[in-house]
Amino acid sequence: MAKKPNGPRGYxxxxxxxxxxxxxxxxxxxxxxxxxGDVVEFKLLKKNFYLINHPDLMKDILTRDIDNYTKKxxxxxxxxxxxxxxxxxAMGDDWRRKRLTVQPSFRNASISNLATIMTDxxxxxxxxxxxxxxxxxxxxxxxxxxxxxxxxVVKALFSSTLSDTxxxxxxxxxxxxxxxxxxxxxxxxxxLYRLPLNKNKKYxxxxxxxxxxxxxxxxxxxxxxxxxxxLLQMLIDATDEETGLPLTDIELRNELMTMFIAGHETTANAxxxxxxxxxxxxxxxxxxxxxxxxxxxxxxxxxxDFANLxxxxxxxxxxxxxxPPVPILPRQVERDTTLGNYKIKxxxxxxxxxxxxxxxxxxxxxxEVFDPNRFDKExxxxxxxxxxxxxxxxxxxxIGNNFALMEAVFIIAMTTQRFRVNLDSDTSFEPxxxxxxxxxxxxxxxxxxxxxxxx
Length: 455
Ligand code: HEM
Known about the structure:
Blueprint (H helix, E strand, L loop, with lengths): L16 H5 L3 H12 L2 E6 L2 E6 L2 H9 L5 E2 L3 H10 L8 H11 L5 H5 L2 H20 L4 E2 H18 L5 H23 L11 H26 L7 H7 L11 H14 L2 H15 L2 H14 L14 H13 L6 E5 L3 E3 L2 E3 L4 E4 L1 H4 L19 H6 L18 H18 E5 L7 E3 L3 E3 L4 E6 L6
Parallel strand pairs: 2-8
Antiparallel strand pairs: 1-2, 3-5, 4-12, 5-8, 6-7, 9-12, 10-11
Helix pairs in contact: 4-9, 7-8, 7-18, 8-13, 9-10, 10-12, 13-15, 14-18
The structure holds protoporphyrin IX containing FE (HEM).
The site of protoporphyrin IX containing FE (HEM) has 23 residues, from helix 12, helix 13 and helix 18.
């Protein structure tokens, strides 16, 4: 018979809110699953929540009855203010229609068309790093990776139709916009954000700046004679399978804004961890260098090289195991249901954490050890698919996963052709696990030249 999960009592009225709102939230989540098991019940204010930490149960939530585990959560409400209804935020039939329309643009064959855009951006970025390196200055990895991944995603979306001025404007508003969204989700008191405060006006101003650029580019593209092969064009050409209708301007804007936001900070954070880890793991770095030298030598990779750089991919996957860019994911359970042997009450919140699942001792040997060989094909086959969820899973798995993996492998390979990235010995290396897993402190690194590109 289904049983009621156990969990911490929390404080009167507020429940476990201070624990989940604190910067040590992941440590707290880890401690309650250690104490109460893989399904834990707790309260936040008056609302009931469950923490789910078992791959079988994750498979159930993400693949069975997905319409009963919705995105009607506070964090998605705030995200929707910026994104509108898009593949990321929509639910039910509206989401299905959007996903089916947008998905073909992210198939492997379509992503391959974007490889040159990616490598051009990375080349340009590394040329800037070469002059930094020659002047002996350190680089700050988090900001550098954010800049690079934002450039890759906006160029993949708009290719040459994006002017330098537009890119500068996008870069200027992005950081404060993301910070404001994060602040709203961390302190979700809606009323506060409706007040006529300077801060709130600025927030709307950031969204307006991005909207102006996006709508202008869409309008220009609709009448352009030469249509480039970029994501915007793939999305404009995409049609709903049933009705044959294309996306409207508003729908296009929402998808583009989603890809800006979903598609760069995640990859940037994982890349920052990767360089930080490699800095102290010379054996792993050497294996990467060997693979890159053998496969690419000095040449720029093309789409077909992705499959020939398996070690780079394994290192990136292992980095996302220990530092998943999205460490905690929420859902709302609509109706009473059972999950494994447990009774789950409708109207409750559900949390699951890739960070905890990726360290679950029943599914990972020596979980704290960084070992890329866990991602050998044979090892991957043996493992429970839902024990590794950096991109989520099931029908709502990240639509940009192939894009992100190709981008990351190319960044690793092309950077390795030219440099060793050595973290400054004074730099502290500590994760801040909030909505994303980001470095708590600036990550200063010195670039050591391997060789210059001789083109
Ligand atoms: C390392 C990089 C990335 C990570 C770790 C990541 C992670 C995730 C995760 C965990 C989800 C599932 C959210 C949920 O179930 O609530 C998701 C969904 C999504 N991601 Fe990504 N993402 C990455 C890169 C990208 C890129 C590059 C794009 C697009 C350019 C993108 C677009 C999306 C979209 C549209 C969804 C919503 C899919 C749906 O609900 O149908 N992501 N991502």
